[in-house]
Structures are given as C-alpha cells and as structure tokens.
Specification:
The chain is 68% helix and 9% strand. The protein has 400 residues and is an alpha+beta fold. It has three domains: 133 residues, no CATH class; 60 residues; 126 residues, Histidine kinase-like ATPase, C-terminal domain (Heat Shock Protein 90). The chain has a five-stranded mixed sheet with strand order 1-2-3-5-4, with helices on one face. Helix 1 runs antiparallel to helix 2, helix 2 packs antiparallel against helix 3 and helix 3 runs antiparallel to helix 4. The longest helix has 93 residues. The relative contact order is 0.06.
Length: 400
C-alpha cells in the first residue's frame, strides 16, 4: 500500500519520463520545419529529408515511447537504438545544417537510453554528427567538443544522481511506512494481549470473590441446615420447609461452583502448569483406559497465566481428539521448558489422518488461541502412522 506522497512521486517520475520521451519529437519537428522552409533544393530532395526525419521519429518511437520498460534495463536494445539515432542524425546534418540543432538532444538521449557508464560513452559518441557535418572547421569543432562534452556529461551525471536520490528517498519512505504499519500491528497485538491478560486477571479476581463470599456463605447455610436436620425435627410443615431450603441451598452452591469454574482456569488454580498437565493426563488415562506417559524436560518456571491456560487447553484438546478418534494403544505427552518458549508434544500410535482434510472446531479454535500468543501449532500425521501435535508458545511474560 503506497502513501499519497509516494503516489505523487511516482506520478512526477512518470511525467518526467514522458517529457524526456516526447522531447525529441518536438526538436526534430522544429529542425525539419527549418530545413524544409530554408532548403535551396527542390521538393523531391526535401521529401527525402522529411522521410529520413520521419524514419528517425519512428525509430525513437519504437524503442523509447512504445517500449518504456527498456529504459535503463536492457543495454543491448538501447545501444542499438542509440547507434541508430546517431546514424539518422549524421545523415540529416549532411543534408541540411538545421539538423545540427538536434545533436544536443543526442546528449540527452544518451542518458535516457543507456544505463551507468555506457551513458558517458554515448555522450562522447554523440559528437560524431558534429564531425560529419559539411563545412566543419575540425580544429574549432574539436575545441568546442572538448569543452561541451564534459559539460554535457556533468549535467547528465548530476540529473541522474538527483533521480537516484529521489528513488532512494521514495524507497526509504516506503520502508518507513511498512515499518510503521508493522509497529502498529505489533502494538495492536500487545494491546490485545494486555487486554486478554487483564480480562483473565479480572475473571480470576471475580472467581476468588465469589468463592470467598457467596460460595462460603452457601456452604455455611447447607451445613447449618444439615445440622438442624440431624436433630430429628418432627415431620410437618417445618421439616418440609427445611428440606426445601436445604435443596435450594445445595442447588445454588452447585451453580456458584460452576460459575467459579467457568471464571478461573480450573486445574491451574493452586497448581503449576506441569502438575496441571499431569493431572489432565492421569484423568484421561483413567477415563479411556489407554496407557499414557507424561514427561517434563528442562527447568520448570512460572509462566504467564495466559500461556499456562493455553498450553493446558492444548493438552486437553489433543488428548480428547486421541480418545475420540485415534484408537491409540499408547500416548506420550511431553512438556519442554526451553529458554524462550515452552513446547507441548502429544504423540499417539493411532489410526492417524491426512492433515488438512480432517479437523474439527476444537483444533481450529486451539490454533487460533495459540496464534494469538504468537505461537505455532504443528500437526504431523498420516493414515495408519499415528499423530503428533506440537504446540510452541513463547514465554511472553511471567505470572508470579
């Protein structure tokens, strides 16, 4: 995506290129008009002169106007073009002196058509039509060329340096714009991560508050009602109401605990990541009756709560997929603590599948959650070859 300033710069460059491309037509038309109006020869000879000038115009149109992509990109076609221009100019100056006005344009065309140092050779070669003009004082012409040629080369070099500087500035501006966009994207990612961390912290705080207030109060009410019930309250309206109150209190306590579980990261409450994953593996092994081994490598360290929750959910999702689809006889779960990332590997010897063909909402949601933390999810599988799921999450912070 280009900025307005960059688009204006490209537009100005395109207009300058068009001006350099069409300028020779104007000079050639002017010199041709002078030659025709001041010629002492007859119309047949003037028609030949006009035809040669038209040939030069067509030559220039084909190489420069019709194929602008050849400029400064294809040396040999443009070298042929420039040699042709000098040949046409040499013929024209011998037919009429007015075409000497076109020769300075050859200096310009040398820099238009030829890249790098060949342009300076073209400036020197542009003097050939001067030397071939009839009635030329060779010594005076050589003196003039010795002065004019370096001056033309200097002016052309300065213009070319200015063009290079303009291109460099435009490219630098484009890089700065790209860097600014990338910084904005990274800033947005950091803001999103900070927001997610803030939400997680607030949810954990609400879970603690509900646990310490409402849940504790309901637990006390249930305990008191059960204690009253134990004193053998005679059957009747009072006993019925106590039973109803006890049932309502228990139901409310279950709902409150369900709300607490929804607010906090469950197994991570009071446990570190390694223990939480080990507990998930143990629970899965008891549920499905499939041997499952859990290994921790590296030095365990406290991680940002969002990282821990993401890795734990990844382990639970991978194990759930194995239990429902893989038909595995063994599962190996490895949690690796590295210098700047934590890696979870879940491997099974089940039926496998073709990645990209199979995949449910759970795996897609897991990938989105991991990528939100600038992590990666790699799935390797093949029919009959088992499945390996690797989750890599950077250590983006520490949750003390």
């Amino acid at each position: 995506m280009t900025t307005v300033e960059e688009r204006l710069g490209l537009l100005r460059e395109r207009r300058w290129n068009q001006a350099w491309g069409f300028a020779p037509f104007g000079v050639l038309f002017l010199t041709c008009a002078i030659a025709v109006t001041t010629a002492s020869r007859g119309w047949p000879d003037q028609a030949v002169t006009v035809g040669i000038a038209a040939g030069l115009a067509g030559w220039h149109w084909w190489f420069v106007v019709a194929h602008p992509q050849w400029w400064d990109r294809r040396v040999w076609p443009m070298a042929v073009y420039f040699v042709g221009v000098l040949a046409f100019a040499s013929v024209l100056v011998q037919r009429h002196d007015a075409f000497q006005l076109f020769i300075p344009m050859c200096y310009v065309l040398a820099f238009v058509a030829l890249p790098g140092w060949p342009a300076y050779l073209g400036v020197v070669a542009a003097n050939v039509p001067w030397l071939l003009a009839p009635g030329t004082d060779l010594r005076l012409t050589l003196v003039n060329l010795a002065v004019g040629t370096p001056l033309a080369a200097l002016i052309g070099g300065v213009i070319r340096a200015m063009e290079r500087e303009a291109i460099r500035r435009r490219e630098t501006n484009a890089e700065l714009v790209a860097m600014a966009e990338e910084n904005a994207r990274l800033h947005g990612l950091l803001v999103e991560q900070a927001r997610a961390a803030g939400i997680a912290g607030e949810r954990a705080r609400l879970a603690r508050e509900i646990h310490d207030t409402v849940a504790q109060g309901l637990t006390g009410i249930v305990t008191q009602l059960e204690a009253i019930d134990e004193h053998a309250v005679p059957p009747g309206p009072v006993r019925a109401r106590l039973e109803i109150a006890g049932g309502l209190a228990r139901t409310s306590l279950v709902e409150v605990r369900r709300s607490i579980e929804a607010l906090r990261p469950g197994p991570l409450q009071g446990a570190r990541l390694g223990e939480a994953v080990r507990q998930a593996v143990t629970t899965w092994r008891e549920q499905y009756g499939v041997p499952a081994a859990f290994t921790v490598t590296g030095t365990p360290q406290p991680l940002h709560s969002e990282v821990e929750v993401t890795v734990l959910r990844a382990a639970q999702e991978a194990l759930s997929n194995v239990g429902r689809h893989a038909g595995a006889r063994r599962v190996d779960v490895t949690l690796s603590y590295m210098e700047d990332v934590v890696v979870l590997d879940v491997r099974d010897d089940g039926v496998g599948f073709t990645p990209g063909v199979a995949g449910g909402f759970g795996l897609t949601a897991l990938m989105e959650r991991v990528r939100a933390l600038a992590g990666e999810v790699d799935v390797e599988s093949a029919p009959g070859a088992g499945t390996a799921v690797s989750v890599t999450v950077p250590v983006i912070g520490v949750d003390g």
